[in-house]
Specification:
alpha/beta
């Protein structure tokens, strides 16, 4: 059972719903992202979703686009995001990283044991998920589709 499934099971037993805040990694910088994640945990987040800047610009609205632009302008790199996620892997709060592509950096981190749990809204989401599931069957994936996405 994945950490997310366990968390939802715990909440269900208590009759609670999940609080799942979202943040763009690196906005405005990585240090503040880390501090915000810590605050989200202190304030009761059950799961935290971290967005990779401009991984889904077609679906992102203006606020997320602005946050992504600011993060990229301040030098955020994919490797920095995965390093940040590694810091939080040992806590009880699942960290969900939203990714849309299966780029080589993503593959390297998967092979190194990073847990990537959400593939979101791209035009090729279904194809990407199938490739990830074939290559990494042990990684739990939450598939969220965009407005034109076929059923997953």
């Amino acid at each position: 059972m994945s950490r997310i499934s366990k968390k939802f099971e715990q909440l269900k037993k208590k009759g609670h719903r999940a609080l799942i805040p979202f943040i763009i990694a690196g906005d405005p910088n990585l240090d503040i992202t880390e501090k915000l994640i810590i605050k989200m945990i202190e304030w009761g987040a059950d799961i935290i979703e971290i967005g990779i800047p401009f991984s889904d610009p077609i679906v992102d609205g203006p606020t997320i686009q602005f946050a992504s632009k600011r993060a990229l302008e301040n030098g955020i790199l994919l490797e920095d995001i995965f390093s940040l996620v590694e810091v939080f892997k040992k806590i009880d709060i699942p960290i969900v990283v939203t990714v849309v592509s299966e780029k080589s950096d993503f593959q390297k981190r998967m092979e190194a044991g990073a847990t990537i749990l959400n593939v979101s809204g791209a035009s090729k989401t279904t194809e990407i998920i199938k490739r990830i599931r074939d290559k990494y069957p042990e990684v739990p994936i939450i598939a969220t589709g965009g407005p034109t996405e076929e059923s997953i």
